[in-house]
Amino acid sequence: MTDLSSLTITSARAALDAGELTSLALTEALLARIEQTEPSVKAFLTVTAELAIAQARAADATRGAATHSPLHGIPLAIKDVIATEGVRTTCSSRILENFAPPYNATVMERLNAAGAVMLGKLNCDEFAMGSSTESSAYQTTGNPWDLARVPGGSSGGSAAAVAAGQALGTLGTDTGGSIRQPAALCGISGLKPTYGRVSRYGLIAYGSSLDQIGPMAWTVADVALMLQVLAGHDPRDGTSANLPVPDYSAALTGDLRGLRVGVPSEYFVEGMEPGVEQATRTAIEVLRDLGAEIVPVSLPYTKYALPTYYIIAPAEASANLARFDGVRYGPREPGESMWDQIELTRGHRFGAEVRRRIMLGTYALSAGYYDAYYKRAQQVRTLIKRDFEQAFTQVDIIAAPTSPSVAFPIGQKTDDPLAMYLSDVCTLPINLAGVPGLVVPCGFSENLPVGLQLIGRPFDEATLLRAGDAYQRSTDWHTRRPALG
Ligand code: GLN
Predict the structure, then answer these.
(1) What is the CA radius of gyration of the chain?
(2) Total domain count for the chain?
(3) Which of 42, 79, 192, 413 is catalytic?
(4) Is the CB of 196 within 6 Å of ligand 1?
(5) Does 271 reside within a domain?
(6) Distance between CA atoms of residues 2 and 21, nearest Å
(7) pLDDT for 332-359, tens place per residue?
(8) Residue among 134, 158, 178, 212 to mutate when testing ligand 1 (max atoms within 8 A of CB)
(9) Which of 424, 425, 428 to mutate to test the pocket of ligand 1 (most atoms within 8 A of CB)?
(10) Domain that holds residue 457
(11) pTM higher than 0.70 for the full model?
């Protein structure tokens, strides 16, 4: 068997089912790969080697049972904002240092029931606030294509772990682009499902009206297998949609004839790197060659998405993060009174970016400013959503760039929050509208990966996956691997 760490979920599944591979051998190979590459990649905050071996053994013991999930025995890793029972879950923050949740997120219960193996917890921006993973309180993850560059963020550890061959698939979360932008920057595939498609129960909230958990892996076929396990109604999440979940793998027909693909001029923003624009436009031509009809569309409110998002997301974050007071979760700083303790704990243990968001959000929600900022932003959000509704009367999906640039050097934007926020201009509107977005690798610019973003109608992940998979059947970008140690 070839190098196990370069397998996809689909190829590992075939080898497991054929009896050519055991989950234990695969898991041990990935743990060895993690040990070998972590000193330079730094994608993991916690490696759960013992648990992984035990889960792999259990999977091998139950293999061959009449029916089992496609993820049975498959080693995965999880962004550290998702609650894992008894396993440290830090949100990359000092305020949750050594916090071990007493329960599992619904997605973890689903993965466990499917027989998946958990290799560990992945680094991200603190509380998922950022676009480079540099706001983690613990470490800076390197991009496996160039370790001096960021992997994107906030799910940078999730993207880097796949790209470095440390895990066959990972979970990320996406509030404004945090699955799609790092997938693009690390040359892998990633899906932000429709808001409500995947349960948020046990996801430590950032912006509750925007957050979604989603799969990241080399191929769209793998993303489809993972979504099948993750998606579905959860009564413990009041915003979870009670809708049937289609058979996503069956939707991958390879046929794009007649599919209407909209291309919004507003997404080819000023300042976009020419290599990114070129790779994106070439990818759209591939869709045309496959039989899709390319239609220009307009999403005129796109230019308001960034300011709208940076009111709504911090407002929700300021409310969500109020619970971290050193009393209910995590460590507590000593102080004379209860109020001193809370102030010291929050002041010392939240990082600069998180404190900035809390202040922005508290300001936007405060009496006298609420109407001018928060209420206004919610109104503009409705207009942005209508842009998409209007476009989807003309087209079935929308194709656009994911990020205006390729992976940037570590440290380049850390002192310039606005420049960092601009990395998400092409991904934020999708969260504001609540629609699904898929990223597939579509080429390289200056030897760094570029990702094509496909945007779909609400709850129509199947069409997005069909388009992304058809693209991958006729291109080989998703088979490229970084030359890492
Ligand atoms: N970079 C954006 C932010 O900092 C999006 C982050 C995310 O999607 N979690 O808010």
Answers:
(1) 21
(2) 1
(3) 79
(4) no
(5) no
(6) 11
(7) 999 999 999 999 999 999 999 999 999 9
(8) 178
(9) 424
(10) 4-262+393-479
(11) yes
